[in-house]
């Protein structure tokens, strides 16, 4: 990950020397270092921004809040814009990681959906630090034919049994069942499946979740948070705990691919996580001015719509809606009904002590020991 940024920074240093020698403005002002989730932006959003603003963007990606947090906590990252999810964002704000937004530079702010702003304000009171970007759910992506082959034509797709019921998972193991490498989300979901409070910080509840995952562990092909997109699309795996838009990207690639693969997404009826990803500017960011330009650009309704039409996540931009493809905005798996909304839960930050216990449990789960 830091490869890209290092390359970008050294390039800008030498460019700065050159421009300084010719007496022009420093090249620093012409750079922006963005660290975002993989598969989370339209293909031409970065080039269009670069062209319009004359800013060169170093764009790095991650697929895990834990990875982003590790990078941020280490400090001095050189990033100008990062995109954590709500619960992580809250504790990072509390840790002093971010600078307040200068709203006078964000005149597209009013395009944001007030309801989403209110949701995000539970993490960022007064919406002082972050611009909500996209939101979605954590459900199941599956290969329709492969699952039907193993569970029968009347297979029930809308349940976490596909992953967490040991008998069902055993039947699916040979076609590839995968879990996100996202401890909080997997544990929250496992607790919910067991009928416990998904956000419980009781260690017995955590142990129950660990026991459940250990039981299905032999049937899990891998823990990864982005590889499943292509693997689902190519028929290499058949059931993945995954993020809504990423599964739709897989479905789209599957349809475009040569092999006849139908991939679908479900928000299981037992309930699921709803999350919000938020753009923010780290304290000490080298190019805060360009960061504000970037945030303001992302809030243009047409830019937000283009991103959504490319990555299939719901946007926090209400004025983008008229420009969003009908099959996206009318898809209840992307914009869920009121009823489904009620079955979703938001993640909240955990006490550091419990977070550490859970991280250790995750290592045990992943290694199967
Ligand atoms: C984008 C994944 C973002 C969803 N590929 C996780 N918050």
Mean pLDDT: 92
Q: What's the CATH architecture name of the largest domain?
A: 3-Layer(aba) Sandwich
What fraction of the residues are assigned to beta strands by DSSP? Answer: 15-25%
**Ends distance:** 29 Å
Number of strands: 11
Number of helices: 17
Give the CATH superfamily of the largest domain.
Answer: Periplasmic binding protein-like II
Domain tally: 2
CATH topology of the largest domain: D-Maltodextrin-Binding Protein, domain 2
Task: Give the class-level CATH name of the largest domain.
Answer: Alpha Beta
Task: Describe it.
This protein has 369 residues and is of the alpha/beta class. It has 2 domains: 30-134 and 276-336, 3-Layer(aba) Sandwich (D-Maltodextrin-Binding Protein, domain 2), CATH 3.40.190.10; 137-274 and 345-367, D-Maltodextrin-Binding Protein, domain 2 (3-Layer(aba) Sandwich), CATH 3.40.190. The chain is built from 17 helices and 11 strands. It has helices at 2-22, 45-53, 65-74, 86-94, 114-121, 144-151, 161-164, 166-172, 183-193, 203-216, 227-234, 244-256, 288-298, 301-311, 326-329, 338-342, 352-367, and strands spanning 31-37, 56-62, 81-82, 130-143, 177-179, 220-223, 239-243, 263-266, 272-280, 314-315, 344-346. The strands form 2 sheets. Strands 4, 5, 6, 7, 8, 9, 10 and 11 form an 8-stranded mixed beta sheet that branches. A 3-stranded parallel beta sheet has the order 2-1-3, sandwiched between helices. Strand 1 (31-37), helix 2 (45-53) and strand 2 form a beta-alpha-beta unit. Helix 9 crosses helix 10 (203-216) and helix 11 (227-234) packs parallel to helix 12. Residues 1-25 have low confidence and may be disordered. Bound molecules: pentane-1,5-diamine (N2P).
């Amino acid at each position: 990950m830091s490869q890209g940024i290092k390359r970008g920074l050294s390039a800008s240093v030498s460019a700065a020397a050159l421009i300084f020698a010719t007496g022009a403005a420093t090249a620093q002002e012409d750079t922006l270092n963005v660290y975002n989730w993989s598969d989370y932006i339209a293909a031409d959003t970065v080039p269009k921004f670069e062209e319009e603003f004359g800013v060169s963007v170093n764009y790095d990606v991650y697929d895990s809040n834990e990875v982003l947090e590790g990078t941020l906590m280490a400090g001095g990252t050189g990033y100008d814009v990062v995109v954590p999810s709500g619960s992580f964002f809250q504790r990072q704000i509390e840790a002093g990681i971010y600078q307040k937004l200068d709203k006078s530079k964000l005149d597209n702010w009013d395009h944001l959906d007030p309801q989403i702003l209110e949701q995000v304000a539970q993490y960022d009171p007064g919406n002082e630090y972050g611009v909500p970007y996209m939101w979605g759910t954590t459900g199941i992506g599956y290969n329709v034919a492969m699952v039907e082959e193993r569970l029968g034509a009347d297979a029930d797709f809308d349940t976490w049994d596909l992953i967490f019921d040991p008998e069902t998972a055993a039947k699916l193991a040979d076609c590839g069942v995968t879990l996100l490498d996202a401890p909080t989300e997997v544990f929250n979901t496992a607790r919910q499946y067991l009928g416990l409070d998904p956000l419980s910080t009781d260690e017995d509840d955590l142990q129950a979740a660990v026991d459940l995952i250990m039981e299905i562990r032999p049937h899990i092909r891998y823990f990864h948070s982005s590889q499943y997109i292509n693997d689902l699309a190519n028929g290499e795996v058949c059931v993945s705990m995954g993020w809504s838009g990423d599964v739709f990207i897989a479905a789209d690639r599957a349809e475009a691919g040569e092999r006849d693969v139908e991939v679908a997404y479900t928000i299981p009826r037992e309930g699921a996580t709803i999350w919000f990803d938020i753009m923010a500017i780290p304290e000490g960011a080298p190019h805060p001015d360009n960061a504000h330009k970037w945030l303001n650009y992302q809030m243009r309704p047409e830019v937000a719509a283009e991103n959504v039409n490319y990555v299939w996540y719901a946007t926090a931009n209400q004025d983008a809606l008229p420009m969003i493809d009908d099959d996206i905005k009318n898809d209840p798996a992307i914009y869920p009904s009121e009823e489904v909304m009620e079955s979703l839960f938001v993640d909240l930050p955990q006490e550091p002590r419990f977070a550490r216990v859970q991280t250790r449990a995750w290592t045990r789960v992943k290694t199967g020991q």
